[in-house]
Amino acid sequence: MGKKTFGFLAVLVIMAAAVMIIIKTSNGTDDEDSKSKKTVLHSIEEVADRLNSEFDSGKDGTAKLYISNSISDDDLKKVNMSINSMKGSIESFTTYSSNVDNLSDSYREVDFEYKRSDTMFVYDNIVNKVAIPEDRQEAIRLRNVCEKILNDHVKNYMSDYDKEIAIHDYIVNNCEYGFSENKDDSEYTAYGCLVNRKAVCSGYSAAANLLLMCAGVECKIVTGIATQMVDGKESSENHAWNQVKIDGEWYHLDVTWDDPVGDRAVLIHEYFNVSDSVINRNHETYSSNASKCESMRSNYYMKNGAYLYDVASLENYVRICMSTGNSHHFECALNGITVTDETLQFIYDYTGVESVRYSLEGSREYNILSVYINE
Q1: Residue-wise over 223-243: b if at least 16 C-beta within 10 A, else e?
Q2: CA 353, chain centre distance (Å)
Q3: Which of 82, 177, 192, 326 would staple 203 via disulfide (CB 3.0–4.6 Å)?
């Protein structure tokens, strides 16, 4: 019997999981009775579903699965992009290759080594009062931070929408987009976002997911491709964001893309509770667990009377902002309104206004106007 073993390090953009693969060769002499007892999985979605159920054991372990040979080892290397990262991740897997005469029934055994996530230990502790093992020190530190955030910013009397606003704004205001200086991949986790305060998209979405679920708001992580303009050219990359259920309806929530970058000095709410039609302008999900998001009722601008259709409405909205003390920055969504320097000249009529700077992000039907006064 020949045996070939090799390893590699694959840092996935979404999950940042280092997955090692070991291939072993067996003679493939399964008899028909043993085959009939095996459940052969024929898609990455089926594999992910089975692995998600393994995480529910509450501890690290090994899962022995039977995988159709139509799924390549290269596909399996990306399995962390399909499983529920809230629950855990695959650390490595060993695949046993068998020679099977009937190619239509060809399959192999794959043993997955998995690790339950710190976020799941934290969730179980805060919500279900399950003790965190003493050897999971990062989980304990993350729990302590989460408890303080929830105690300081989320109250039981708040609506799910208000809890979501509080958690979204806290993350944006307290986390910087970037990579860990310790090169420990923590930026891909809720720990990186909430404890180290430095994360990338998967860390932002994991943190939002954890805090929202601990606050009793139904939420999940979705993954896919996001496209944006970089130096005048379209650039696409793997991305993670959330879907949140508010008043019985699902919405997209992208905390990462609401974080200020470049010339934009403050957070905005462009991706706070948007529909499929809005998110699909520059996001494409490949998560099998994604829900349809058809409503805009709980969209930030809709809820705050800041979704505007004409210049008169824009002028009235600015008047309200200025009269309520919000005189340095405000944001709104425009539908069909063209904005130029001349459009905003009326703001100079207000006492004390010396300079007006603004930015526009989005499409004609959902164009986010951010105005900065005396900045």
Answers
A1: bbebeeeeeeeeeeebbbbbb
A2: 39
A3: 192
